[in-house]
Amino acid sequence: MSNVIVFGANGRTGHLVVREALRRGHDVTAAVREPARWRPPTPEDSPGTGESNVVRADVRDADSVRSAVAGHDIVVSAIGPPGRHAHRLYSDAARTLVSAMEDAGVPRLIAVTSGGVHHRDPGFPWWYRNLVSPLVRELYDDMRLMETIVRRSGVDWTFVRPARLRDEPPTGSYRVVDASNPRGGRQVTRTDLARFIARELDEHRWSHAAPTLAE
C-alpha cells in the first residue's frame, strides 16, 4: 500500500478520495488550509486498514507544500475554486506541487482537472461546446495550463478529467476514454470519480494519460 497525500481534502471530491483510499488500505494525509475544519471519514465510511492524519498546507505556499509532501509516495490534487473562475489556482498549484515533489523525491501525481479542458472535443454535445464551455473558459484555460506545467516536469502524472459531477450514489457504469470525452457523456457521480482515483493508486494503469470519465 502507498503513503498518499490529498490536497483539497476539505472539498467534496477530496474528502471522498481520502475515504476511498482508506478503504483500499492506503495511509492517507489530508492536506488542507484549515485543519480545524477537517472531519476525517468515520470507520463505518472507511472500513479499510489505512491510517489517516491531517496537515496544514496551502498550494500557493511553497514552504507548506514542500513540508507536507515529504515522505509520501503519491500526491493527489483535488483542489478547486469556489466559483467558476480559477484565479490561477490550478497553474499556481502546478508550479508549487511540481517543485515540492521534485525536491522531496515524490514521484507520482494524480490531478483532477475536467473533461472541459478539451473544450472542442467532438465527444461533447454541441450545446456544451458552443454554449456552456465559453462561460467557463478562464477556468478551463487555467486547468490546461496546469496540465502543461506538469507535463514539462519530471513527475509521473495522471490527469483525471471528469464530466459534470453529481453528488449522488455511485453507479459504477461510467465510461473512460483517454484524453477525450466518452461520446455523448454528460456527467459522472463524485463517488465514482473518487473510486476511480483510489483504484488508480493501486493499478497505475493511466501513467502519462488523461482518463476522461462520463456516463
Please explain how this structure is put together:
- This protein has 215 residues and is an alpha/beta fold.
- It has a single domain (3-214), classed as 3-Layer(aba) Sandwich (Rossmann fold), CATH 3.40.50.720.
- Helix content is 33%, strand content 21%.
- It has six helices and ten strands, in the order βαββαβαβααββββαβ.
- It has helices at residues 12-23, 62-69, 89-104, 126-132, 137-151, 190-203; strands spanning 3-7, 27-32, 52-56, 74-77, 108-112, 156-162, 164-166, 175-178, 187-189, 211-214.
- Strand 4, helix 3 (89-104) and strand 5 form a beta-alpha-beta unit.
- Helix 2 (62-69) packs across helix 3 and helix 3 runs parallel beside helix 5 (137-151).
- The model has no long low-confidence stretch (mean pLDDT 93).
Write the layout of secondary structure elements.
Blueprint: E1 3-7, H1 12-23, E2 27-32, E3 52-56, H2 62-69, E4 74-77, H3 89-104, E5 108-112, H4 126-132, H5 137-151, E6 156-162, E7 164-166, E8 175-178, E9 187-189, H6 190-203, E10 211-214
Parallel strand pairs: 1-2, 1-4, 2-3, 4-5, 5-6, 6-10, 7-9
Antiparallel strand pairs: 8-10
CATH architecture: 3-Layer(aba) Sandwich
Query: What is the rounded distance between the termini?
Result: 29 Å
CATH topology: Rossmann fold
The helicity comes to 25-40%
Sheet-strand content, in percent, reads 15-25%
CATH class: Alpha Beta
- Based on CA inertia axes, which overall geometry fits? globular
Give the low-pLDDT segments: none
Keywords summarizing the entry:
215 residues, alpha/beta, Rossmann fold, 8-stranded mixed beta sheet, two-stranded parallel sheet, 6 helices
